[in-house]
Amino acid sequence: MSFPNLYYKRTTATAKACYICYKPTTAVLATIDTSDFLYTCTIHLSDHGFATRVLELESENKIGISVEEIARLREEWEEKQRRKQEKEKVDKDKPADEGEKKEDDGKSGKSSKAPVSLPKSGSLSPRPTHEKYILHRDIFALRVSEHRRRRQTSQAKDLAPRLPGAPSSSLP
How many CB atoms lie within 10 A of CB 42? Predict the structure, then answer.
């Protein structure tokens, strides 16, 4: 079982010993699924021999679509909605059966609510994210070997009861 070398800085309520200097600290570096975590001082996080901070580009969002493309698609969608509303108004103005008018009224009531309830993309505030760090290759190798040793120890404890015991009688 291997985990990626990408850790997120988080803060805990209880202070525990730092992985490097054993001083109490509340800063924790943890993987996304918290399969590995280690307490570290904030001073060690600025040391490039221990970890390097990963900076993200803010112009691209997480799905890889540029801001300009999102704005273009939004404008196209709004234009389609305007055309649709104009078409419904034209259909509503035409004299028709009362039953059809009732159906048009029901449709226009639903469609008039839809554009109002849509949030504006410019009004969304950015979500706070945790700082990302990559451990130095030697520190990461220590973490991986420690996890491997723990896994092998637990496998040995599970396998030990199934192995045959040493013979208790003497050989002839």
Answer: 12
**Burial environment of residue 51 by CB neighbours within 10 A (0 to 12, 13 to 18, 19 or more):** buried
Instruction: Tell me the per-residue pLDDT of 128-161, one tens digit each, with 9 for 90 and over.
Output: 578 999 999 999 999 999 999 999 999 999 998 8
Q: Which two tokens stand for residue 45?
A: 């996080």
For helices 67-93 and 98-117, angle between their N-to-C axes, nearest 10 degrees: 160
d(CA 13, CA 11): 7
Q: Of 123, 131, 100, which Cα lies nearest the Cα of 28? A: 131
- Residue 31 CA to residue 142 CA, distance in Å, equals 15
* SS3 label, residue 97: coil
Residue 103: the pLDDT is 55
* Pairing between β-strand 7-17 and β-strand 132-135 as defined by DSSP bridges: antiparallel
Compute φ and ψ for 54, nearest 5 degrees.
-100, 125
Q: How far apart are CA 166 and CA 130, in angstroms?
A: 54
Examine the pLDDT at 25 and tell me if it is beyond 90: yes
Rounded CA-CA distance 93/101 in Å is 10
Stretch (H or E) spanning 57: none
